[in-house]
Amino acid sequence: MHKPKVSVIMGVYNCQDTVEESIESIIYQTYQNWELIICDDASTDGTYEKVLPFTKRDPERIRLIQNKENQKLATSLNRCLAEAKGEWIARQDGDDLSVSTRLEKQVRFLATNPDYDVVGTAMTVFDESGTKGVRALASEPDRKVLARGTPFCHATIMMKASAYNTLNGYRSVKTTRRMEDIDLWIRFFAAGMKGFNLQEPLYLVREDEAAFKRRKFRYSIDHAWLVLKACWILKLAPLDYMYVLKPIVRSCLSPTIMRFYHHRKLRKSVIKRSAIRDE
Asked: In the chain, how many domains are there?
């Protein structure tokens, strides 16, 4: 029986145009001791039918499960975790891509740095018009980051299965809809765990026009509540409570302004990385 070192978990919903390429980016990894568990969250397009042939091609390593009704990402990922057999768990989204050396480099990091519970990577942002830039987070984020943003790009992570077990996976409740990663990181730091971000962009994230249109005000309220929760549980500084308002203010901005904001951030990241290489 196949005993994978890495379990890649993927929750998919209505991504029939991208899911095949996403799966292939795992299939063609330089590191091959993996399994891929995909949970279709009751897609209403042809996503399930697009994934099914891959399970027939490699049934030992690729498995497909399906929710009878749409239950959002946290529930889908928990179903994948229940099936996972690997020592390490990697994430992947159905509309994104992994660079061919991604798993190899994350496995190497966790194998040689056992004190860390998770490793993320920088990621290249792209849309229908091409590559837009690289998004990289701090190499060693701490709990204070959660007031201002996220410590890890969720879709890029590889985490110890034992850490997921300790945290009981994702919480699937109203306040974590579309914010299941922020809730996970609050509990992650509260448990005394630590992680690292590789600065090499080993993941390609699709951030197209639809991504900005999907953002809804109620999700911003959820996000603000989680920032407040992070400040309280992790005993952050009093000034950090000011950042509770940030998600709400952002939600009031138009998609055009948000695109401009993210474009400027990516541009600054590119300039900064170029300056570091030139030193």
From this structure: 2
